[in-house]
Amino acid sequence: MKYWVDLHIHTCLSPCAEDDMTPNNIVNMALIKGLDIIAITDHNSARNLEAVIEVGKRQGLLVIPGMELCTAEEIHLVCLFPSLELAHAFEKLVYSNLYPILNREDIFGPQILMDPEDNMIGKETRLLSGACKLDVETAIKEVRDLGGIVIPAHIDRQSYSMLNTLGAIPSEYCFKYLELSRNCSFGKFLSENPSLDPYHYIQSSDAHYLGDILEQEVSLDLKDKTIESLLDLLR
Q1: Taking each helix axis from N to C terminus, what angle separates 136-145 and 84-96, rounded to the nearest 10 degrees?
Q2: Backbone phi and psi for residue 99, each to the nearest 5 degrees, phi listed first
Q3: Helix 49-59 and helix 84-96: axis angle, to 10°?
Q4: Residues 30/60, Cβ–Cβ less than 8 Å
């Protein structure tokens, strides 16, 4: 069955996201836009996942627990997990590998923690938007050991892209899907990178603003509307 998805969305926990990227605003906007499944992928953190997942359950929207990891090489990876608990297990590893740098709200913006009623319950003080100490190979292994999947993020971009940073998508990482930016021309991208033709592709919003969340633009054919079915397809 076809389900409309957006698998790369940030909440107000990500310092570069707008303060109105709250659990209820995100879920309601996704439903207004006709989506069935979203993934929450804050920078280097999973601390707003529980709130968004709870709101999604109330509203009938499937929310995939995720994270956008910035590796030691400054490569962004979209990491998706089978459960909230496993996402938090990976977060524990990531937090132990964050550099001891405090967030500067005047430069990077606030990192807001929320409950399912959109109440602010605190702020993350450690800077989340920078690279951690985990290299790409280690990060991929750790996510997969937890039953999760990894998709290299926005590989068409010049910054934080595996393709631009490494000059290739190493075959030994055994990716099935690669992510392209929402506005990337798929045909043009493949004509410029013919060696990447064997991969499957997904385009996501990487939304930091409510209006950027996808419309019914990207769909996946799944057996049913579950995390397991989605991860099985992407794995």
Answers
A1: 150
A2: -75, 145
A3: 160
A4: no
- Under DSSP, the state recorded for 160 is S
Measured from the Cβ of residue 107, the count of other Cβ atoms closer than 10 Å reads 8
Token pair in block for residue 2: 């076809």
Q: What angle do CA 74, 75, 77 make, to 5 degrees?
A: 135
Q: What is the rounded CA–CA span in Å between residue 129 and residue 140?
A: 19
The type of residue at 80 is L
pLDDT (0 to 100) of residue 81: 98
User: Strand, helix or coil at 138?
Assistant: helix
Question: In whole angstroms, what is the distance from residue 230 CA to residue 40 CA?
Answer: 14
Per DSSP, the three-state class of 188 is: helix
CA 60 to chain centre: 20
Report the C-alpha gap between 35 and 3 in whole angstroms: 8
Instruction: Return the SS3 of 158.
Output: coil
pTM for the full predicted model: 0.97
Q: How far apart are the first and last CA of the chain?
A: 18
Residues 4/35, Cβ–Cβ less than 8 Å: yes
- Residue 135's closest CA among 65, 71, 58? 71
Angle at 132 between CA 126 and CA 138, to 5 degrees: 145
**pLDDT of amino acid 2:** 97
pLDDT tens for each residue of 100-122: 999 999 888 999 999 999 999 99
Give the pLDDT confidence score for residue 99 in this predicted structure: 96
Pick from 118, 120, 113: which is nearest to 25 by CA? Answer: 118
The DSSP element (H or E) to which 87 belongs, if any, is helix 84-96
